[in-house]
Amino acid sequence: MEELKVFDGGRSKFSHMTSAHPCFNEKAHFSTARIHLPVAPKCNIQCNFCNRKIDKCEHRPGVSSGVMKPQQAADRVEEALKELGGNLRVVGIAGPGEALANEETFETLKIVHERHPELIKCIASNGLMLPERIDDLVKVGVSSVTVTINAFDPEVGAKIYSWVRYHNQTYRGVEGARILRDNQFRGVELAAKAGLIVKVNTVLVPGVNTDQIEKIAQEAAARGAILMNIIPMIPLYKFKDMKPPECKDLEEARAIAEKYLPQFRLCKQCRADACGIPGREESLSPAQRAASGEYYHA
Questions:
Q1: Of 116, 46, 65, residue with least CA distance to 275
Q2: What is the value of pTM for the model shown?
């Protein structure tokens, strides 16, 4: 097995932070703990592979055992610090819905940041509201953002998203996909200019967005992202009968994207209430194992 790489996108000014984040750094993935706080139940888009769920057993994004109130979530951080000690370095909000579509996200992070300014605060977002919430994220101590971008061409995005709800209006088809795409890349640019570390996630859906990978990587790099994470589609909702990507599909996509951005290869597609060291957690589906590199290390 080749030596694990440390990813900071070649931008040394971020290395002190990326080196401690298990979702940005392969070494930290096996030694550093993170906690996801499930305070964001609502979502403002509908992906055709997404089924949000309250469940104690299923291990995937969009799932948590419940939804916490901000104070309750902040107290959970205190418990986790006692359980994990100095290993806990990162507090994130990744659902089970869209972080930026729920004011509870900001309320929670504000409390956590006031109590623990030393902890890294991060969010995962679909990017729809990112351009207008950058300042709010900075105020509550967020230093890294992961934006999931699944299409560059709106015509392809229309195949992936059933609808996009933006400023109290619902858009469908190409129109909705274009609004989402434009806001995503604008959000990446503004976040990077604000000094946030930006990673881009892309869900690989074979036969749908395979040809979008290079375009997404190239544009994201130009806008200031420093890392990319290509993960396999888990067949759910309208895509439940579709075949997920195989290891070779992921490997080929990552090789294409790596011309523009370093690739993170150990993602486990965590639950919205995950807590612990990602590289030491079990109970992965075959699709998640493929993404994590447990079946291969490219």
A1: 65
A2: 0.87
